[in-house]
Amino acid sequence: MNVTLPAVALTTLLLGACSSSVEPQQQNIAPAVQSKTMQVQVMYRDRSLLPPGAELKVTLADVSLMDAPAKELASKTLPLEGAPPYNVELTFDSSEVIANMRYSVSAKVTRNGELLYITTEHNDPFGTVQSQSPIKVMMEKVAKPDVSLTNTYWKAITLKGNKVQVTEREPHMQFHDDGKVSGYLGCNNFTGQYVKGQHFGLRFKAVASTKKMCMDSMAQESAMSEALMNTFSYDIMGEKLVLRDEQGSNLATFQAVYFN
Protein backbone atom coordinates (compact mmCIF):
# COMPACT_ATOMS: atom_id res chain seq x y z
CA MET A 1 0.00 0.00 0.00
CA ASN A 2 1.37 3.42 -0.96
CA VAL A 3 1.64 5.83 1.94
CA THR A 4 1.53 9.49 1.05
CA LEU A 5 3.06 11.85 3.59
CA PRO A 6 1.22 15.04 4.31
CA ALA A 7 2.85 18.19 2.97
CA VAL A 8 3.64 19.49 6.45
CA ALA A 9 5.37 16.24 7.45
CA LEU A 10 7.38 16.21 4.24
CA THR A 11 8.53 19.78 4.79
CA THR A 12 9.57 18.94 8.36
CA LEU A 13 11.54 15.94 7.15
CA LEU A 14 13.42 17.97 4.52
CA LEU A 15 14.30 20.71 7.01
CA GLY A 16 15.58 18.12 9.45
CA ALA A 17 17.78 16.62 6.75
CA CYS A 18 19.21 20.03 5.96
CA SER A 19 19.90 20.80 9.60
CA SER A 20 21.70 17.48 10.07
CA SER A 21 24.11 18.11 7.21
CA VAL A 22 27.74 18.64 8.23
CA GLU A 23 28.47 22.31 8.88
CA PRO A 24 31.94 23.71 8.22
CA GLN A 25 34.01 23.45 11.39
CA GLN A 26 35.45 26.63 12.76
CA GLN A 27 39.22 26.18 13.16
CA ASN A 28 41.63 28.14 15.30
CA ILE A 29 44.09 29.23 12.68
CA ALA A 30 47.42 30.28 14.17
CA PRO A 31 48.83 33.53 12.87
CA ALA A 32 51.46 33.07 10.22
CA VAL A 33 55.05 33.09 11.41
CA GLN A 34 56.84 36.24 10.34
CA SER A 35 60.45 35.12 10.31
CA LYS A 36 63.19 37.71 10.60
CA THR A 37 66.94 37.31 10.88
CA MET A 38 69.18 39.12 13.34
CA GLN A 39 72.97 39.29 12.97
CA VAL A 40 74.82 39.11 16.30
CA GLN A 41 78.54 39.58 16.94
CA VAL A 42 79.82 38.18 20.25
CA MET A 43 83.14 39.20 21.84
CA TYR A 44 85.05 39.14 25.12
CA ARG A 45 87.75 41.52 26.31
CA ASP A 46 90.62 39.35 27.52
CA ARG A 47 92.94 37.52 25.15
CA SER A 48 92.52 34.04 26.57
CA LEU A 49 92.03 31.18 24.14
CA LEU A 50 89.03 29.02 24.89
CA PRO A 51 89.66 25.37 25.81
CA PRO A 52 88.59 22.61 23.41
CA GLY A 53 84.93 21.68 23.66
CA ALA A 54 83.70 25.20 24.45
CA GLU A 55 80.23 26.10 23.16
CA LEU A 56 78.55 29.45 22.59
CA LYS A 57 74.82 29.98 23.14
CA VAL A 58 73.19 33.21 21.94
CA THR A 59 69.62 33.97 23.02
CA LEU A 60 66.97 36.57 22.18
CA ALA A 61 64.49 36.83 25.04
CA ASP A 62 61.62 38.91 26.38
CA VAL A 63 62.85 40.25 29.74
CA SER A 64 59.90 42.53 30.50
CA LEU A 65 58.87 40.78 33.71
CA MET A 66 61.37 41.26 36.51
CA ASP A 67 59.80 38.61 38.78
CA ALA A 68 59.43 35.90 36.13
CA PRO A 69 61.78 33.91 33.92
CA ALA A 70 62.65 35.48 30.58
CA LYS A 71 60.65 34.23 27.60
CA GLU A 72 63.01 32.87 24.97
CA LEU A 73 62.16 33.92 21.41
CA ALA A 74 65.17 32.43 19.65
CA SER A 75 68.50 30.80 20.46
CA LYS A 76 71.42 29.13 18.74
CA THR A 77 74.23 26.98 20.15
CA LEU A 78 77.43 26.29 18.24
CA PRO A 79 80.92 24.92 18.96
CA LEU A 80 83.69 27.49 19.14
CA GLU A 81 87.02 27.48 17.35
CA GLY A 82 89.56 30.26 17.24
CA ALA A 83 89.40 33.72 18.74
CA PRO A 84 86.49 36.19 18.81
CA PRO A 85 84.54 37.92 17.42
CA TYR A 86 81.98 35.19 16.79
CA ASN A 87 79.24 35.95 14.26
CA VAL A 88 75.87 34.31 14.89
CA GLU A 89 72.60 34.50 12.94
CA LEU A 90 69.38 34.33 14.96
CA THR A 91 66.02 33.68 13.29
CA PHE A 92 62.93 34.76 15.25
CA ASP A 93 59.21 35.35 14.79
CA SER A 94 58.73 39.11 14.58
CA SER A 95 55.03 38.76 15.43
CA GLU A 96 56.09 37.85 18.98
CA VAL A 97 57.87 41.20 19.40
CA ILE A 98 55.44 43.59 21.08
CA ALA A 99 55.85 47.33 21.39
CA ASN A 100 56.74 48.70 24.85
CA MET A 101 58.11 45.33 26.00
CA ARG A 102 61.79 44.82 26.91
CA TYR A 103 64.03 42.48 24.94
CA SER A 104 67.65 41.51 25.28
CA VAL A 105 70.27 39.49 23.42
CA SER A 106 72.52 37.49 25.73
CA ALA A 107 75.41 35.09 25.24
CA LYS A 108 77.31 32.57 27.29
CA VAL A 109 80.18 30.15 26.77
CA THR A 110 80.21 26.79 28.53
CA ARG A 111 82.42 23.73 28.49
CA ASN A 112 81.17 20.39 29.84
CA GLY A 113 78.50 22.26 31.78
CA GLU A 114 80.95 24.77 33.30
CA LEU A 115 80.19 28.44 32.69
CA LEU A 116 83.22 30.28 31.29
CA TYR A 117 81.88 33.58 29.90
CA ILE A 118 78.55 35.39 30.17
CA THR A 119 76.98 38.72 29.28
CA THR A 120 76.44 41.06 32.23
CA GLU A 121 74.80 43.99 30.41
CA HIS A 122 71.37 44.50 28.87
CA ASN A 123 71.54 44.42 25.05
CA ASP A 124 68.30 45.73 23.51
CA PRO A 125 68.29 44.70 19.83
CA PHE A 126 65.32 46.91 18.99
CA GLY A 127 66.39 50.09 20.78
CA THR A 128 68.07 53.12 19.25
CA VAL A 129 71.45 52.22 20.75
CA GLN A 130 71.52 48.85 19.01
CA SER A 131 69.94 49.90 15.73
CA GLN A 132 73.09 48.94 13.81
CA SER A 133 73.83 45.47 12.45
CA PRO A 134 75.31 43.26 13.68
CA ILE A 135 74.14 43.56 17.28
CA LYS A 136 77.35 43.69 19.35
CA VAL A 137 77.32 41.64 22.55
CA MET A 138 80.19 41.69 25.06
CA MET A 139 80.83 38.83 27.47
CA GLU A 140 82.78 38.83 30.75
CA LYS A 141 84.97 36.02 32.02
CA VAL A 142 83.57 34.10 34.97
CA ALA A 143 85.94 33.76 37.90
CA LYS A 144 87.23 30.19 38.01
CA PRO A 145 88.17 28.02 40.95
CA ASP A 146 91.87 27.35 41.38
CA VAL A 147 93.19 24.63 39.09
CA SER A 148 95.22 21.77 40.47
CA LEU A 149 99.00 22.04 40.81
CA THR A 150 99.36 18.49 39.52
CA ASN A 151 98.38 17.17 36.09
CA THR A 152 98.27 20.68 34.63
CA TYR A 153 100.43 21.98 31.80
CA TRP A 154 102.01 25.16 33.20
CA LYS A 155 103.30 27.54 30.54
CA ALA A 156 105.98 30.00 31.71
CA ILE A 157 104.83 33.62 31.35
CA THR A 158 107.44 35.65 33.28
CA LEU A 159 110.88 34.95 34.76
CA LYS A 160 112.36 37.48 37.19
CA GLY A 161 109.66 39.88 36.09
CA ASN A 162 110.61 39.64 32.43
CA LYS A 163 108.23 38.32 29.80
CA VAL A 164 109.22 34.89 28.53
CA GLN A 165 110.34 34.85 24.89
CA VAL A 166 109.49 31.78 22.84
CA THR A 167 111.83 30.72 20.04
CA GLU A 168 111.23 27.06 19.16
CA ARG A 169 109.27 25.79 22.16
CA GLU A 170 107.74 27.48 25.17
CA PRO A 171 109.26 26.85 28.62
CA HIS A 172 106.82 24.87 30.72
CA MET A 173 106.51 22.26 33.45
CA GLN A 174 104.13 19.61 34.72
CA PHE A 175 103.75 18.24 38.24
CA HIS A 176 102.82 14.57 38.49
CA ASP A 177 100.94 12.79 41.26
CA ASP A 178 103.95 10.57 42.07
CA GLY A 179 106.05 13.57 43.20
CA LYS A 180 107.94 13.96 39.93
CA VAL A 181 108.17 17.09 37.82
CA SER A 182 109.20 17.48 34.20
CA GLY A 183 109.29 20.18 31.60
CA TYR A 184 111.29 22.34 29.24
CA LEU A 185 113.67 25.08 30.38
CA GLY A 186 113.94 26.94 27.09
CA CYS A 187 116.70 24.88 25.52
CA ASN A 188 116.80 21.60 27.44
CA ASN A 189 114.26 19.21 28.88
CA PHE A 190 114.40 18.61 32.60
CA THR A 191 113.14 16.10 35.17
CA GLY A 192 113.18 16.12 38.92
CA GLN A 193 111.14 15.87 42.06
CA TYR A 194 109.05 18.29 44.09
CA VAL A 195 108.15 18.31 47.77
CA LYS A 196 105.42 20.16 49.65
CA GLY A 197 106.30 20.50 53.33
CA GLN A 198 104.94 21.80 56.63
CA HIS A 199 107.36 24.74 56.91
CA PHE A 200 107.57 25.57 53.23
CA GLY A 201 105.11 25.51 50.38
CA LEU A 202 107.11 23.94 47.55
CA ARG A 203 110.69 22.83 46.94
CA PHE A 204 112.33 21.25 43.89
CA LYS A 205 115.10 18.67 44.25
CA ALA A 206 117.22 16.35 42.12
CA VAL A 207 116.56 18.45 39.02
CA ALA A 208 118.55 17.26 36.00
CA SER A 209 118.47 18.40 32.39
CA THR A 210 119.87 17.53 29.02
CA LYS A 211 123.06 19.31 27.89
CA LYS A 212 122.10 20.91 24.59
CA MET A 213 123.53 24.37 23.87
CA CYS A 214 121.23 27.10 22.49
CA MET A 215 122.89 30.45 21.88
CA ASP A 216 119.63 32.43 21.75
CA SER A 217 117.92 31.07 24.86
CA MET A 218 120.59 30.11 27.41
CA ALA A 219 120.03 33.26 29.51
CA GLN A 220 116.32 32.54 29.76
CA GLU A 221 117.01 28.88 30.57
CA SER A 222 119.35 29.94 33.36
CA ALA A 223 116.61 32.18 34.78
CA MET A 224 114.16 29.27 34.69
CA SER A 225 116.64 26.95 36.44
CA GLU A 226 117.38 29.59 39.08
CA ALA A 227 113.66 30.08 39.73
CA LEU A 228 113.22 26.36 40.36
CA MET A 229 116.26 26.21 42.61
CA ASN A 230 115.10 29.16 44.77
CA THR A 231 111.42 28.24 45.01
CA PHE A 232 110.17 28.13 48.60
CA SER A 233 106.40 28.55 48.16
CA TYR A 234 103.75 28.93 45.52
CA ASP A 235 100.33 30.47 44.93
CA ILE A 236 97.60 29.38 42.54
CA MET A 237 95.02 32.00 41.61
CA GLY A 238 92.52 30.55 39.17
CA GLU A 239 94.66 29.45 36.21
CA LYS A 240 97.81 31.31 37.30
CA LEU A 241 100.74 29.76 39.20
CA VAL A 242 103.32 31.94 40.98
CA LEU A 243 106.62 30.59 42.33
CA ARG A 244 108.05 32.58 45.25
CA ASP A 245 111.35 32.60 47.12
CA GLU A 246 111.79 32.44 50.90
CA GLN A 247 111.16 36.18 51.21
CA GLY A 248 107.92 35.90 49.24
CA SER A 249 109.25 37.61 46.12
CA ASN A 250 107.89 36.59 42.72
CA LEU A 251 110.34 34.31 40.89
CA ALA A 252 108.20 33.17 37.97
CA THR A 253 104.59 33.06 36.80
CA PHE A 254 102.90 30.32 34.79
CA GLN A 255 99.55 29.97 33.02
CA ALA A 256 97.48 26.79 32.76
CA VAL A 257 97.12 25.69 29.15
CA TYR A 258 94.55 23.30 27.64
CA PHE A 259 95.03 21.09 24.60
CA ASN A 260 92.74 19.08 22.31
TrEMBL record:
It comes from the Bacteria. Gene3D superfamilies: 2.40.128.270. InterPro entries: DUF306_Meta_HslJ, HslJ-like_sf, Lipoprotein_YbaY-like, Pilotin. Residues 148-255 form the DUF306 domain. Coiled coil: none annotated. This is DUF306 domain-containing protein.
